[in-house]
Amino acid sequence: EAEVAQSPRYKITEKSQAVAFWCDPISGHATLYWYRQILGQGPELLVQFQDESVVDDSQLPKDRFSAERLKGVDSTLKIQPAELGDSAMYLCASSLVQGATGELFFGEGSRLTVL
Amino acid sequence: QQQVKQSPQSLIVQKGGISIINCAYENTAFDYFPWYQQFPGKGPALLIAIRPDVSEKKEGRFTISFNKSAKQFSLHIMDSQPGDSATYFCAASGTGANNLFFGTGTRLTVIP
To answer: Tell me: the pLDDT tens digits for B19-33?
Structure first.
């Protein structure tokens, strides 16, 4: 069964350090999302890609977060510098159709702890 | 501002009982209402979804009830099983929108 792959599963870092997360969506899924899930809350959209183009990054804290999907396949989310409040689960999802009214397939997430 | 309000925060049900989780929204442009199930250490997975042209959708033991006038929808899990123990998120979005707004989640525990 096709899955969304994410790495690393766990990352512990000190504040002010740089961190990066990688996501490989399901093959053929042109739409890719990065969500942040704070413990005890629902996922919140950070950025959405359609192929290699950013469709929505209105909720991405651009002073410290960046995301890219250079060849329209896998994607990287970077945080520099990390802050204590960035501790969360970072979820990648992909979908076959553009827009938020289709099924989203989520990876297992990357859990970030900032000390 | 929370686009989708979900309750209760946690729920304990006996095996065989009915689990009910409620959600409410304000944005009348929303026309897609999915429920996602998340097990510990896993990402959310789509469980069932409904559009406002119907008031109820059933898939096995899972049923969504939708009340358009009240702007509320709920998930009913019939004959709840210990394997249903997970966190459930309601969500909402509108046609053409990019963002799927999630509720805060309900942690369901089914006691054997």
So the answer is: 999 999 999 999 999
